[in-house]
Specification:
single chain; 227 residues; alpha+beta; Homing Intron 3 (I-Ppo) Encoded Endonuclease, Chain A; two-stranded antiparallel ribbon; flat
């Protein structure tokens, strides 16, 4: 039986709780509801670490001890790096892997998923930009850092990035803009040659001139009631 399917005999619907699909779960809940409630009541609610009175988040640990285990492999590990040299603080959050990446194990931004690091000024800065400026040199104004070696956002190795313009960085990505820029023909199969390409003044978007002429022809025909 595939993982994640109902454990009831002959049922292959998705598991939603306690190993059962929604229908079988409701049947079992009506049959064993009181027992299940007693089991839930018997579960520990306080962190299992001695002298910790916080509520459980996961693995019988509170949020603090769970995060220590998640970051360092041990819920009792506590790194107090306040006052330490900034490079010691930086490398305490780095895991170096075989391909040379410096994988960031610290704070990750919620919007673009890039690593963040608290600099000497006390401000949170992008960790890969901080590392580049620390060990390579200043980043030209208006430029971004492109992970041209590993293409791993969480890598902070200054040797794996290079300054590029925002446009070059976007075109090297796998976003919509990059995919459209790589197209050589329009959706109707007309080549984007120099003669057949129109660039919009404001956004510099490409448009097919043949398709434009055909669109205008159909519009005029509809206005005349012919098409």
């Amino acid at each position: 039986m595939a993982k994640g399917t109902c454990t009831a005999e002959g049922c292959n619907r998705p598991n939603v709780g306690r190993g059962f699909c929604r229908n079988h779960y409701e049947q079992q809940r009506r049959r064993h509801g009181d027992k299940w409630a007693d089991e839930r009541a018997a579960r520990p609610t306080i962190c299992s670490i001695e002298d910790c009175d916080e509520k459980i988040l996961s693995r019988e640990w509170c949020s603090t001890h769970y995060q220590r285990w998640y970051n360092h492999g041990d819920p009792m590990t506590k790194l107090d790096l306040r006052g330490e040299d900034i490079e010691i603080r930086f490398f305490a959050k780095v895991q170096i892997v075989e391909n040379g990446c410096w994988l960031w194990m610290g704070a990750i931004g919620t919007k673009w998923s890039y690593p963040y690091f608290k600099s000497d000024s006390g401000k949170m800065v992008l960790a890969h930009r901080w590392a580049y400026e620390r060990w390579v040199g200043p980043i030209p104004e208006g430029f971004q850092l492109d992970h041209f070696v590993c293409e791993t956002k969480h890598c902070v190795n200054p040797g794996h990035v290079r300054p590029v313009t925002p446009r070059e960085n976007v075109l090297r990505s796998d976003g919509v803009t990059a995919r459209n820029a790589a197209k050589t023909h329009c959706i109707r199969g007309h080549e984007f040659s120099e003669e057949n390409t129109y660039r919009t003044p404001t956004t510099n978007d490409r448009q097919c001139r043949i398709c434009q002429r055909e669109t205008r022809r159909r519009y005029k025909a509809r206005k005349r009631g012919v098409y």
